Amino acid sequence: MDKKNSEMTKSVLFVCTANQCRSPMAMVLFKDLIARSEEKENNWQIGSAGVRGVSGLPATREAILVMSEMGLDLLNHRSRPITESLINEFNLILCMKKDHVDSIKQDFPTAKNKVYLLSEMADQDQDINDPVNLPMDAYRHTVSEILDFLKKGFSKIVKLS
């Protein structure tokens, strides 16, 4: 990508622990919000990773199902760990929990000015808890929380991306 195109690209990386439910769900939810907005005209790079992610694992069955209920697809998602090259690839990094933010800031000090809690985009300070090993209703609640923060923080996310 030439310099001019890279300057025009907006980019956001969603981060959770294993990159198998919260961050992939946030990624597809945000892609859907972008597709339904005037922002779809811009060049977007939207991804996800995990602070303790292992490469190549699928999204959890429940994450796939709850996204499918919303008409969104996580079938082809494969997990990946956060790396310095990923950090450098994205303009904005949005984490599900404060310990994710702290971990990234500690491991990748150059990222400190672009890593936030997702809830901060909606002017809140709230962790989004991991629904792994919980019933489907917990996943639906998590999706509702993520979507609420994405909608309330949409303009701020766009600005910082």
What structural class is derived from the secondary structure elements?
A: alpha/beta
CATH architecture: 3-Layer(aba) Sandwich
Helix amount: 40-55%
* N- and C-termini, Cα separation: 17 Å
Any key phrases for this structure?
161 residues; alpha/beta; single chain; globular; 43% helix; disordered N terminus; four-stranded parallel beta sheet; Rossmann fold
What order do the helices and strands come in, and which of them pair?
Layout: H1 3-8, E1 10-16, H2 22-35, E2 44-50, H3 61-69, H4 84-89, E3 92-95, H5 98-107, E4 115-117, H6 136-152, H7 154-160
Parallel strand pairs: 1-2, 1-3, 3-4
Protein architecture, described:
This protein has 161 residues and is of the alpha/beta class. It has a single domain (3-160), classed as Response regulator (Rossmann fold, 3-Layer(aba) Sandwich), CATH 3.40.50. It has helices at 3-8, 22-35, 61-69, 84-89, 98-107, 136-152, 154-160; strands spanning 10-16, 44-50, 92-95, 115-117. A 4-stranded parallel β-sheet has the order 2-1-3-4, sandwiched between helices. Strand 3 (92-95), helix 5 and strand 4 form a beta-alpha-beta unit. The protein is globular.
Please outline what is shown here.
Helices cover 43% and strands 13% of the residues. The protein is α/β, with parallel strands linked by helices.
